[in-house]
Write a structure and sequence with these properties.
Blueprint (H helix, E strand, L loop, with lengths): L17 H19 L2 E2 H8 L3 H14 L2 E8 L2 E8 L5 E7 L3 E7 L5 E8 L6 H18 L7 E8 L3 E2 L4 E2 L13 H8 L3 E5 H11 L9 E6 L3 E7 L2 E2 L31 H4 L1 H8 L8 H9 L3 H25 L3 E5 L7 H14 L2 H6 L1 E4 L6 H16 L4
Parallel strand pairs: 4-7, 7-10, 11-14, 14-15
Antiparallel strand pairs: 1-3, 2-3, 4-5, 5-6, 8-9, 11-12, 12-13
Helix pairs in contact: 1-3, 2-3, 4-5, 6-13, 10-11
Length: about 400
């Protein structure tokens, strides 16, 4: 499988390079056009704060790629060039594999969702079997929308586990152990398209600053609370991947010195005291709580045992977030996962935990709220890495 020319996975570029800066400026232009519609180059310069020369160069490159169309107009009595996003017919695909589901979205390069579907998967599913099921679903979605396979730029795939970005391989530590060892090449063979693979929390963070109500935020932490606890980091407006791509493993932060052994091999990790699985164990299987949905339902009904378990877990999660906040000083912490419907019953103990561990000025200036995208975040983030790679073109 040969990758689409110019499709550059996020994190593959040097964040301080000229190519990365050019890519970031291009994203600012696209975001302005999405928010304001067709605009002159002068309006783009004023709206984005970029120089007119920079805007002119980027618009010329984007027009050559067919991302924008330009036409002469008269503005304030002067000749000007109107710029507008074009419908290239290209499609970005985002796929999110969860413990019990796969969700697929189809989007345009203009960040319009044109199709979206989710199907259930059996717990402990065969991975390649589930990928084949997703590939069949994708084929059906394309056919129903009248889209040719040639219009698909690539497939972004989100997986709940650490990814070695050098090889696109799922590493030990994934919540779904069946995924360990699966490679990007195997996914490409099944889907029949170029694939970009990433951790689901990273994609949730990217989606929030690309699609959600938090577009434009420069420094945030997206925390997904589920069977595992992962975090995606946006630093200075860009996803942060570190050296290998293994960042945000919040669930494997030791928080209890004499705690139980975690599946990662360490002792007392956050995941061993605050994941939804541990919450269910604390409530007792015989008490009618078998899934995260049961926790949500009973929490909304003000069940005191559930609220206590959620409070204890939330405080521990907040303490771990507070430690990270002391290092990166985020503007915003967003909470995702199946329990977000609990609202302040979940957020208040998280905020309390942050206040316990973050220095006062950071705790007092960090906003904590629920994800704006719900269970769509990861699939939209998967589509976003395809869009951003395609818009980067040869800028790498």
């Amino acid at each position: 499988m040969t990758a689409t020319p110019g499709l550059i996975p996020r994190g593959a570029r040097n964040p301080g390079s000229q190519g990365a800066l050019r890519h970031l400026n291009q994203e600012r232009l696209v975001e302005f056009l999405l928010a304001n519609g067709p605009s002159t180059q002068a309006e783009l310069a004023r709206g984005t704060g970029l120089s007119t020369a920079t805007v002119s160069n980027i618009v010329r490159d984007m027009a050559a790629k067919g991302v924008v169309a330009t036409s002469p107009v008269t503005s304030s009595g002067r000749r000007a060039l109107l710029v507008q996003l074009t419908d290239t017919g290209d499609i970005a695909v985002g796929v999110d594999f969860g413990r019990r589901h796969v969700r697929i979205v189809l989007t345009t390069l203009g960040y319009d969702v044109i199709a979206e579907e989710q199907v259930a998967l059996e717990p402990g599913y065969d991975v390649l079997g589930a990928v084949r099921e997703a590939a069949h679903l994708l084929d059906r979605m394309l056919a129903e929308g009248g889209h040719d396979r040639e219009s698909v730029l690539a497939v972004g795939v989100g997986i709940p586990g650490p990814i070695d970005r050098r090889t696109g391989t799922v590493l030990q530590g994934a919540i779904l152990p069946e995924w360990v060892g699966i490679t990007r090449r195997e996914l490409e063979d099944v889907f029949g398209f170029p694939v970009v693979v990433d951790n689901d929390a990273n994609l949730g963070a990217l989606a929030e600053v690309t699609w959600g109500a938090n577009r434009g935020e420069r420094n945030l932490i997206f925390v997904k609370i589920g069977t595992g606890i992962g975090a995606g980091l946006i630093l200075n407006g860009q996803p942060y991947y570190g050296f290998l791509g293994i960042t945000g493993e919040l669930g494997h932060t030791p928080v209890a010195e004499h705690g139980v052994i975690c599946r990662c091999g360490n002792r007392g990790c956050l995941e061993t005291i605050a994941s939804t699985s541990v919450m269910l164990e604390s409530l007792g299987r015989g008490d009618g709580a078998r899934t995260a949905s049961d926790i949500l339902r009973r929490g909304l009904a003000k069940d005191p045992a559930v609220l206590r378990v959620v409070s204890d877990a939330g405080t521990a999660i907040g303490q771990a977030i507070g430690n990270v906040a002391n290092v990166i000083n985020p503007e915003l912490v967003l909470i995702g996962g199946p329990l977000v419907g609990l609202g302040d019953a979940l957020l208040d103990p998280i905020r309390h935990g942050i206040r316990q561990n973050a220095i006062p000025i950071i705790a007092g200036t960090t906003t904590v709220r629920i994800s704006s995208l719900g269970d769509r975040a990861e699939s939209l983030g998967a589509a976003a890495i395809v869009i951003k790679g395609a818009l980067a073109g040869q800028d790498g």
